[in-house]
Amino acid sequence: MKFWLLMFTFILMIALIWASGAMAFTLYALNINPQSPNEDTQAIVVLTGGRDRVEKGLELFANDMAPELFISGVNTDVKDEEILALYKGEKALPFCCMTLGYKARSTMQNAIETKEWLAKTEFKSIRLVTGNYHMPRAMMEMRHALPEIQIYAHPVEQINLKEDKKRLMRLLLSEYHKTVYRYIGLTFGLDNG
Q: Coil, strand, or helix at residue 128?
């Protein structure tokens, strides 16, 4: 009888830890704000994969928040002109210094692709643009890959997800699990996860 009581207590504790972590992750992801929004950086890095991310990156670029823009994880069929067409702001975009990265297909690969791009520069600071729900894992991967770079989080609230609560909750739970999995992997040196 004691064995089953201990087993039940253990399972209950694991469930409570999981639920508490999921709730904390959700609250953090939904309430995260841009870090030092008026601070200029040497580059803006946008991770593709959700609506409004590239648009926000272009807006920051047009507003001179950094002299260079790197967009990671671009589909190989997408050209510069198609990216530029997403910009709807009034202020003109700079004439140069936008680079598209076509290699990345995951958040870990985004970090590797960004590291490879930054290796060609002497930059020490970036502004990272991605969805708010994706920012915790993206920051974890970027800090792991780029420990010497100052990274400012610039999360984007994706309106299409805000209107679809069920989809948003599924996405947040999925991101929570991916973040925990990668945290464990990085903690124990499993960098290929």
A: strand
pLDDT, tens digit, 9 for 90 and up, residues 68-108: 999 999 999 999 999 999 999 889 899 899 999 999 999 99
Q: Cα–Cα distance between 74 and 153 in angstroms, integer? A: 20
Whole-prediction pTM: 0.91
3.90.226.10, 3.40.50.620, 3.40.50.720, 3.30.200.20: which CATH number matches 34-158? 3.40.50.620
Residues in the chain: 193
Report whether pLDDT(191) > 70. Answer: no
Going 10 to 11 to 16 to 19, the CA torsion angle's sign is positive
Q: Positive or negative, the Cα torsion across 128, 132, 135, 136?
A: positive
Alpha carbon distance 134, 175 (integer Å) = 7
Q: Hunting for tokens 């770079």 — which residue is that?
A: 149
With contact defined as beta carbons under 8 Å apart, do 132 and 160 qualify? no
Rounded to the nearest 5 percent, the helix, strand and coil shares of the chain are 50, 15, 35
Q: Which residues contact 51 (CB under 8 A, 6 or more apart)?
A: 158, 159, 160
Span 131-159, average pLDDT = 95
Strand-pair partners of 151: 126
Specify which residues 99 forms β-bridges with. Answer: 70
Q: Is the pLDDT of residue 171 over 90?
A: yes
